[in-house]
Structures are given as structure tokens and as C-alpha cells.
Amino acid sequence: MNVDLQRAIDRYVGVPLCALASLLERVLQRRTPPLLPRRIVVILLSEMGSLVLAQPMFALLRDRYPGASLHVLLFGKNREVLDLMASVPPENVITIDDRSLGGLLRTLFAAIRTLRRLRPDAVLDCELFARISSLLAWLSGAPLRVGFHRHTQEGLYRGSFINRRVLYNPYRHLSLQFLTLARALASKTHPLDKEHHDPGDFPLTAPLPGFTAGEVDAFQARIVDDYPRLSGRRLALLYPSGGILPIRAWPPENWRMVASGLLAEGYVVAIIGLPADKPLGRLLSEAVAHPDCVDLTGYTRSVRELVALLGRAALLVTNDGGPAQFSSLTGVPTVALFGPETPRLYGPLGDHASCLHLALPCSPCLTAYNHRNSPCDGDNQCLRRIAPERVLTEARAVVARIRPRSIKDTP
């Protein structure tokens, strides 16, 4: 479904519904929460990459509440990432289809019925300030509802029915803020969670995903069969697309220069992306015009295959987006380009990645406060001013210091 339509529904339908829910909350009798929650639902609807950033939170919930069953509510298109990392049992996943308005409404009501039957003790709303997720937390009937709250900030109204209110902090990495949501279940401070820990106290590197026996070998054999020039060569992957937010994309000419530079250094270069990115992939491969530059946009048929491809690569250069986050699952040396958003919040987990970001006065412009709706006119100088030479220099440095982890089949 169109992103602008989602924003409009969230604003013009979500605000009055949140106000109504807040009024009803004052008169409803809620269940008394148990001392230890037995059924916990995590609502994480948004991009696939956020599921990788949430892995430390899932680990903390399992550690602190070992007897609780964990459930996840998310958009169906993102389920594959959740299953890949085995965050929760497959039967504990509830999905919503957001590909069309009709599908959204139909599956939304089905999800609400499932939540009501589940009778969760606690719901963690991991969306920043989306109203649909806060309403789902309220409609679940859970006595404990954890979520980000505006506190003393103006705007971003989501009602008053979130009763474990976490302060959104734009200066802390999102993975750490997800950890705060988990700790807020038991916190007694105001605002919630004033625990102090060193960054090393948290498992901020996502776990390697498990693959079925022979799955990775089969994929590697297929790609070498389809693209023999990749066999036995150092592979550099380039992700030039901005995804659903085109303003996150570095200019195509810069990608052409980086591809040519990597080819000159002995890499074989592959351009990756979704099937919708095929025109961009074809444009770049034709502009580079080198037999060792191949267009793999749309080639991987699943996130599992994309992660297997990342596990085979010697280098990833990527715009801010899914591949940047998935790189944490393999530790492939990575250069990630940020501009409209900031690596302070969304940088990949782990020390394998180097994030380039020019902090112009207007950057970052995609924030929780504007629902990632940038005021930029499309002239994204925050990215355009990152020179290809700087990217190539950073690529050499990160490859020299990082040894990627290996992807292994799980029998």
C-alpha cells in the first residue's frame, strides 16, 4: 500500500481513534497483571531491518522471562526475516497484509481477534509513533502496554492508554531503545528505565541465522552455474536502491564510479536489489560496461538467499536499508551510506560496518517526529556530497580490518 496513504490513515483516522480509546480506557476494568507476564506480544510492523535491530531485545525478554511465551505481530512481507532468525516459534507469529487497503482491513480484524483469544499479559509496541500499533496494543486487552510516549513533547499524539510509557530518545541507537521497552515491564522509575550499563553489557551483534542442511551449498552452486565469472573471485555487492524512500539513494553516477573502482582492484561486482530495482540495476551494469559487473537485482528469491549471498561476499556497499541491517547476520565488511537518516539510530549492529554520514544542518530529515516524511525537495546533498573516492577508501579500510563470519548450514 502507498506510503503516503498509510500516513494519511494513521493521522486522520488514527488520532480520533486514539482519543476515543483513551476515553474508554478510563471506564474499562482491566485484568490485574501477573507478577511475571506469561504471554508477551511484540508489535513490530515496520521495515525488515528493524527486526534485526530488535534481536537483543528478544534475547533480553527470553532471559528475564524464561517461562513466558513470546509472540510477534508484524506485516506479512517481513515474516521471512523473523523466521530466519528464529526469534519466536512459527506458530506464535501473527501477520497483517499491508499490500492493499482491503487486505489491510481484513487481516487487521483477524489479527485483533487472534490477540483477544491469546489474552496477553503484556504488549510491547516497538513502533516509534505510529498510531495503528498503539491501537492494536490497546485492543489486545493486555493489562501491561509498553510503548514510546511523547511525555513533555508537543505533537505526536497517540492517546493516553499506553500505561508503561517509554521516553523516545533520538540520541540512542534504536537497538538500545528496544531494550528499554523490554526493561520497562518491571521498571519503577519515571520516566521508565534509568538503568545504566556499558555498551558491552548487551549482545548488540545479531546471531548467525540457521539454514537447513545443504541450503547454502545449493544456492552457491546455483549462482556459480548462472554466473560462472563469480566462481573463486572476490565478490563486492552494491545496493544502490533507496527502497520505499528514494531520498535515501546515492546518485547512480557515484555508484558507477565505485563499481569501476572496485573492478580495477580485482573484485567482481554484483548489483543487488528487489525485482522493482531491475531498471536501476540494468542502467548501472550497462553504464559500467564490464564483463565482471553483473546485475543480480531480483535474483535472490528470498531473504534467506540474500543472506546466503551476503555470506559469500567479500564486501558490501549499500544505501541505508535492509541489506545494511542484514549484513550484521554474516559480518560481511560493509560500507553503509546515510544522509536522510542517521547511523546514530540505525547503524548496523556489530563492528563489521563503517557508516558514512555528512551531518548537514538539515540531516537527518527522516525522523520519528515526521513519520519519515522528509521536507527535502529531492536534492539530497547529504548523500550527493559523499564522494566515490571516500567510499572506495573506506571500503579498503573496512576490508583490511574485518574478517567476516561464515554462514553454515544447520542440520
Number of domains: 2
| Terminal CA distance | 38 Å
Strand content: 5-15%
Using the 3D structure, state the CATH architecture of the largest domain: 3-Layer(aba) Sandwich
What spatial order of strands do you see in the largest sheet? 3-2-1-4-5-6
Question: Structural class from helices and strands?
Answer: alpha/beta
CATH topology of the largest domain: Rossmann fold
Number of helices in the DSSP assignment = 16
Count the beta strands: 12
Protein model, in words:
The protein has about 400 residues and is an alpha/beta fold. It has 2 domains: about 200 residues, 3-Layer(aba) Sandwich (Rossmann fold); about 190 residues, Glycogen Phosphorylase B (Rossmann fold). The protein has 16 helices and 12 strands. The strands form 2 sheets. The chain has a 6-stranded parallel sheet, sandwiched between helices. It has a 6-stranded parallel sheet with strand order 9-8-7-10-11-12. Strand 7, helix 10 and strand 8 form a beta-alpha-beta unit. It is globular and about 70 Å long. It starts with a helix and ends in a 10-residue tail after the last helix. The mean pLDDT is about 90.
